[in-house]
């Protein structure tokens, strides 16, 4: 009979632990290794067909087609609804999806019905605050008089000089104040619906490309310098916009194309309409963004130094102008605006200028592939 061993704890002398003999350890089981002949006999050939179970998993996705056009081609552009698992091509959607969206996506059938954009209040005080219009009541005739004096001095030049180059003209704002208010309210509605702040210039934000990186001299092949006369026209337009005199443009909502821009008055050929505005950033940082309104600002020899304009946070009316389908003749005929990059005081700027006379009510279009020819426009309306 075993003997109890007293506890070593002085506070509980009645507790004890029974001493038992330690079990004899069993010898380890020897590990069995397969021979190379066994491994090669069980292995599948490199060109063997996939297992049947795997084929069953992918059968549905291999036969997936677009619910709009009925084709299963271009599977890289085929989106899968996260609710019904049906497919839709990015270019078959209306509005067209320029890129595959990041995160969950619902098809038009499963997505909640789109709400009409909430109209911006037609109140002068709210519009003045939204666009930061100056309230000091500057003399509106001073810039016009200065421009007319410059024009008289230029008439003394030879006629040949005028034929070689066409000047950029300043826009002519609508004379009716209520009409101008309606134009600005339409832009404010589009910007607020897109959660975008108004900005009429390039902005350089922290953790993005600094202003020192925007050097027009780094453009591959060089960049045309904006002539002095055209620079005066652009400065005049900026001054008018600060006073609340905007170009005669109206932003309207289209069920197929989203927000679009149309002329709210007759516009002459070579009239300045807007500068493409937004945050300046490096292209390589924005290569995977799903926004469809990124604009090239600077193409450098070093790919890491190429710049783009991103109007998703800050922008103006330029982000809502539609692009043409430059793969068809009918699409090319729609173009009435050209997008040109200029060297202005050593920095690159993107200007949108009318390339022909535009009638009142006509929708504005320009070529998204003015430089790189990399934007997929073959499915544009």
Report low-confidence residues grouped into runs of 5 or more: 1-22, 52-57, 137-149, 154-163, 373-381
Form type: elongated
- Strand order in space, largest sheet: 6-10-12-11
The residue fraction in helices comes out at: 10-25%
What is the number of helices?
8
Percent of residues in β-strands: 15-25%
CATH-assigned homologous superfamily of the largest domain:
SET domain
Radius of gyration, rounded? Answer: 33 Å
Beginning-to-end CA distance, first to last residue: 99 Å
**Whole-number count of domains:** 2
How would a textbook summarize the main sheet? 4 strands, mixed
Q: How do the helices and strands follow one another from N- to C-terminus?
A: EEHHEEHHHHEEHEEEEEEEEHEEE
CATH topology annotation of the largest domain: Beta-clip-like
CATH class of the largest domain: Mainly Beta
Average pLDDT reading:
78
Record keyword descriptors for this entry:
about 375 residues; alpha+beta; 2 domains; four-stranded mixed sheet; three-stranded antiparallel sheet; 8 helices; about 20% helix; disordered N terminus; zinc-finger; Znf_FYVE_PHD; methyltransferase
What's the arrangement of secondary structure elements?
Blueprint: E1 5-6, E2 16-17, H1 36-42, H2 52-62, E3 78-80, E4 87-89, H3 124-131, H4 141-154, H5 159-164, H6 177-193, E5 197-198, E6 202-203, H7 228-242, E7 249-254, E8 258-263, E9 272-275, E10 278-282, E11 295-298, E12 307-310, E13 314-315, E14 322-323, H8 329-333, E15 337-344, E16 347-354, E17 365-366
Parallel strand pairs: 5-13, 6-10, 14-17
Antiparallel strand pairs: 1-2, 3-4, 7-8, 9-16, 10-12, 11-12, 15-16
Helix pairs in contact: 3-6
